[in-house]
């Protein structure tokens, strides 16, 4: 369920990108678990089952299958921060899994199709993020400006709280045996969930891509390392690559290279 506490409109394209963005974050968390210790899921589908907004006209070009909720409550946060909108849209609590999962006999009205697990909660002028098993909260501008990114740091971090992980800020919050750094749950330590090395990405670009280094002086370089990765969600290793150098204004291929694998 997308909770849109913002005066901005949402285009159909933005709504589709929001759904795809959440799908990517969920599956970045779980893709490494496929095949591990009886993990029962493959790719996990993500569906936005409704849009909670203050005004239904904010959902531009609304499609017949799109459900829009326009009830709202008062956001107490607006008392201490007047930049926060007073109106806080809500979806029906009887459809919220977070509010009903403790009752094993609970029956969702209309079946499971409209039930929602979490809120993706956008709030105008919200600083940073907040997360838990109820969902992820961050600013509307942050969400709108990161829709095309493969990994959306704040959403992914807050989703980690949804899976029960703490912030690893303090020693007592960390696993006793330690863990490999970097970790996205230590804010600022990593901007991505599952990377062991610093990476450059150009998702969703395709075709020929390049990285260029400009050095401050002349160096003789005899070796270069590249760490390739793919995530089975759209990022893939290249078919091939070359290393070039600039020779009096002309890009020339390094002669007689050894290696150049893409494993
Ligand atoms: Zn956190």
Structure description:
By secondary structure, this protein is of the alpha/beta class. The chain is built from five helices and ten strands. It has helices at 12-30, 77-80, 97-100, 140-145, 153-162; strands at residues 2-5, 51-53, 68-69, 72-74, 87-89, 119-123, 129-132, 135-139, 244-247, 250-253. It is elongated.
Query: How would you describe the shape?
Result: elongated
Count of DSSP strands:
10
| Weakly predicted, low-confidence segments | none
Largest β-sheet summary:
6 strands, mixed
- Write out the strand line-up for the largest beta sheet, numbering strands in chain order: 3-2-1-6-8-7
Provide the gyration radius in Å: 23 Å
The termini sit apart by 39 Å
Number of helices: 5
Secondary structure: helix percent:
10-25%
Q: What is the quaternary state of this protein?
A: single chain
* Class computed from helices, strands and strand pairing: alpha/beta
Ligands (ions, cofactors included): zinc ion
Order of helices and strands: EHEEEHEHEEEHHEE
Strand content: 5-15%
Q: What is the number of independent domains?
A: 2
- Overall pLDDT metric: 90
Record keyword descriptors for this entry.
two-stranded antiparallel ribbon, alpha/beta, elongated, 263 residues, binds zinc ion, 6-stranded mixed beta sheet, 10 strands, 5 helices, 16% helix
């Amino acid at each position: 369920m997308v909770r849109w506490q913002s005066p901005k409109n949402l285009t159909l394209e933005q709504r589709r990108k929001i759904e795809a963005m959440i799908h990517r974050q969920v599956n970045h968390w779980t893709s490494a678990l496929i095949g591990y210790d009886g993990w029962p899921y493959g790719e996990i589908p993500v569906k936005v089952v409704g849009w909670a907004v203050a005004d239904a006209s904010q959902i531009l070009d609304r499609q017949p299958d799109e459900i829009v909720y326009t009830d709202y409550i008062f956001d107490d946060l607006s008392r201490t921060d007047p930049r926060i909108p007073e109106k806080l849209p809500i979806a029906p609590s009887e459809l919220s899994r977070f509010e009903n999962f403790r009752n094993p006999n609970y029956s969702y009205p209309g079946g499971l199709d409209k039930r929602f697990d979490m809120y993706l909660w956008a709030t105008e002028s919200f600083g940073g993020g907040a997360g838990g098993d109820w969902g992820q909260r961050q600013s509307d501008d942050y969400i709108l400006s990161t829709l095309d990114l493969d990994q959306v740091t704040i959403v992914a971090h807050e989703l980690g709280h949804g899976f029960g992980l703490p912030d690893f800020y303090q020693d007592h919050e960390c696993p006793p045996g330690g863990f490999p750094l970097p970790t996205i749950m230590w804010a600022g330590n990593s901007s991505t969930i599952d990377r062991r090395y610093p990476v450059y990405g150009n998702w969703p670009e395709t075709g020929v891509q390049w990285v260029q280094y400009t050095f401050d002086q002349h160096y003789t370089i005899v070796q270069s390392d590249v760490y390739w990765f793919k995530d089975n969600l759209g990022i893939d290793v290249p078919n091939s690559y070359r290393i070039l150098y600039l020779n009096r204004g002309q890009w020339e291929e390094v002669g007689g290279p050894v290696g150049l694998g893409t494993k």
